[in-house]
Design brief:
heterodimer; A: about 425 residues; globular; B: about 260 residues; mainly alpha; 7 helices
């Protein structure tokens, strides 16, 4: 928070600000002291905001032309692609935008895991972030159903059927979700309604996410608490805004590459076949960003067990701040955790690959190994490593590499070089 | 430290090589054709599109619908680009069911450029019934709806063979090297010299397959040329803007002692 009370210069500004302190908020956002050593992994917050706004704007335009009806949805998407002015551009931005959104959110989450941004006093930021992530997955799944292609239909069938695994009431819940006795027109209608709702819930949570962030301030690559404002910080504007803008533009170049030159590479060709309840595709696969969870789901021979593990793999992240027992935040000073971190990243990527492969033979075995390791990482590795690990010396501030007790200056220098 | 690097290297190697390892496939990989519409500045071959339309109209259209296409599309930029007169003539060569009129009766009239492509069958069921129970898929987005895209469609068109010994085929089922499962209900329709090309091109099986595939690729992505052209402009613009913002960033951050 700003040190000094903000006083608007103009009379009108003062009048408004006395009634609604929106100018004070603006001044706070402009001056917000930010650690000066943030690297480019910290630019993904801004990038994600851009992704959300892009999805909302393109989505609103698409909804003006889309028809949420089982007989008309597929054709209305083709109508957008062929007859609406720049409809192809808007739709490809929206469909690839979902993938870019997830790409950015995964980098954002991995950054948090590496630098310990989820730890005290930032647990609430982390939890709100996870809620956003959950809603993103819901929105993406619902959105993928809307074109009413083969993958839409069968993806919806597989996912909604998961709820039938719940004992006693499962079947009734599934029927209630469908609004029919199978995935059908009522399902498509409600999915469209919810798909339109969720982005605005996300927007609300994003505001809370940023609000919660502005209480303790940003974590940083060194992972230490810093005095704000001090010579360790820079005002958000213009230093961070210009850096975020630069990173966003690089991101947009990659985004544009997908949209204009390979707009369908991240999708599945079966989704250009109109939904047909009588023909099941050879392999039903979700979009790439849900594959690791799909692999976990399929690795369990029991349906209910698979559902529990799949949801568990996400909900375990909610208690992560209390599973990680290390007081040191940044992996830069945690030589053991750092290795487990990369093993974990590899494990998730492997699970993603297994999710795309048929659940049989070696794929199934590896998916099971990957699933077990996923949970071991959180339930065993993190608590134990936190206790046993001898962390490297942590500097006192960003500007002065003065170390805490037991200093080994040579080591500290080396690590500082890496930051 | 050394250990850390090893994990990292292992990690990188794995992500590079993992996706390319073991891949079980029953059918033969499609033939790779160097299509003119591939690549960042790819465009359709106009003459090939026009010939492809002729193949579609004279051969495919007797079974396959293209319900999302409109006759006017044939004259639009980036497509076969028939002249306005030609498009009108093409449309008029089809009988379109219209109505109801003021008496409540349906009637037929010659097609107009604003009409959708006339389907060979009134509905899916009729199409399936006329084709031994197999519905000939609508071809509007067929190229996008098949893994392998244009290469796959082309390969299937030229992939008819006598079945290998031991494979028995039911009545009305044909053997195709590139089809998933190797069995296809569509007979081999492309016979040398079948189409009398208006531009005098020799109508070999390979030529007809290439032309009609090009036509289908355009039908699936009529925006392709505009998309490529716009894409190049957008990327150039973004790269220049990124460079300018980079310079601004360097300038702003030079006020303090921290590198960016």
């Amino acid at each position: 928070m700003s040190e000094q009370e903000y006083i608007p210069k103009s009379k009108a500004g003062k009048w408004l600000n006395d009634r609604l302190p929106i100018l004070t908020l603006g001044a706070h956002l402009t001056d917000y002291p930010t650690p000066k050593n943030l690297n480019y992994w910290w630019t993904f917050g801004g990038i994600l905001t851009f992704c959300l706004i892009t999805q909302i704007v393109t989505g609103i335009v698409l909804a003006m032309h889309y028809v949420a009806h089982a007989d008309l949805a597929f054709g209305s998407v083709e109508h957008i692609m062929r007859n609406v002015n720049y409809g192809w551009l808007i739709r490809y931005i929206h469909s690839n935008g979902a993938s870019m959104f997830f790409l950015a959110v995964y980098i954002h989450i991995l950054r948090s895991l590496f630098y310990g941004s989820y730890k005290s006093p930032r647990e609430v930021i982390w939890i709100i972030g996870l809620m956003i992530y959950l809603l993103m997955m819901a929105a993406a799944f619902l959105g993928y159903v809307l074109p009413w292609g083969q993958m839409s239909f069968w993806g919806a069938t597989v996912i909604t059927n998961l709820f039938s695994a719940i004992p006693l009431v499962g079947e009734s819940i599934t029927t209630w979700l469908w609004g029919a006795y199978s995935v059908d027109n009522p399902t498509l209608n409600r999915f469209f309604s919810l798909h339109y709702l969720i982005p605005f819930l996300i927007l609300g949570l994003v505001i809370l996410h940023i609000w919660a962030l502005h209480v303790p301030g940003n974590n940083n690559p060194v992972g230490i608490d810093i005095k704000k404002p001090s010579k360790d910080t820079v005002p958000f504007h213009p230093y961070i805004t210009i850096k975020d803008a630069f990173a966003l533009l690089v991101f947009m170049i990659i985004f544009a590459g997908f949209v204009f030159f390979t707009p369908n590479v991240l999708g599945h060709s079966d989704n250009y076949i109109p939904a047909n309840p009588l023909v099941t595709p050879a392999h039903i696969v979700p979009e790439w960003y849900l594959l690791p969870f799909y692999a976990i789901l399929r690795s369990v021979p029991d349906k209910l067990g698979g559902v529990i593990l799949m949801f568990g793999s996400i909900f375990i992240l909610f208690v992560l701040p209390w599973l990680d027992t290390s007081k040191v935040r940044s992996a830069v000073f945690r030589p053991i955790y750092r290795q487990f971190y990369w093993i974990f990243v590899f494990d998730v990527l492997m699970l993603g690959y297994m999710g795309a492969m048929p659940a049989e033979g070696i794929y199934l075995v590896l998916a099971r190994v990957g699933t077990i390791y996923y949970f071991l990482h959180f339930l065993v590795v993190l608590p134990v490593v936190g206790y046993l690990e001898k962390t490297d010396p942590v500097p006192m501030s960003i500007s002065d590499p003065v170390l805490t007790g037991g200093a080994e200056p040579s080591l500290a220098k080396k690590d500082n070089g890496k930051i | 430290m050394a250990k850390f690097k090893l994990t990292k290297i292992f990690f990188l190697i794995s992500i590079v090589f993992f996706p390319y390892s073991t891949h079980s496939a029953e059918q033969t990989d499609p033939i790779k054709i160097n299509w003119s519409f591939k690549g960042l500045t790819g465009k359709f071959d106009r003459a090939s599109l026009q010939r492809g339309f002729q193949v579609y109209k004279e051969v495919c259209a007797s079974c396959h619908s293209m319900e999302y296409l409109t006759y006017r599309n044939l004259g639009e930029p980036g497509g076969p680009e028939f002249s306005e007169m030609e498009v009108k003539a093409i449309a008029a060569s089809f009988e379109v069911i219209d109505g109801p009129d003021s008496q409540g009766e349906m009637f037929t009239r010659p097609g107009k450029p604003s009409d959708k492509f006339v389907s060979p069958h009134p509905n899916k069921e009729a199409a399936a019934a006329a084709n031994g129970g197999a519905y000939p898929p609508d071809m509007s987005v067929l190229v996008k709806a098949r893994k392998g895209g244009a290469n796959y469609i082309y390969s299937v068109l030229v992939g008819y063979e006598d079945p290998p010994p031991g494979v028995t085929l039911d009545q009305g089922v044909y053997y195709n090297k590139y089809m998933i499962g190797n069995k296809i209900k569509m007979p081999n329709n492309l016979i040398e010299g079948l189409v009398d090309y208006a531009d005098g091109t020799e109508s070999t099986v390979d030529q007809m397959a290439k032309d009609v595939t090009t036509f289908l690729a355009w039908a699936a992505e009529p925006e392709l040329e505009e998309r490529h052209k716009t894409g190049v402009k957008v990327i150039i613009y973004l790269v220049l803007l990124t460079f300018l913002v980079y310079l601004s960033m360097k300038k702003i951050w030079s006020r303090i002692d921290t590198k960016v």
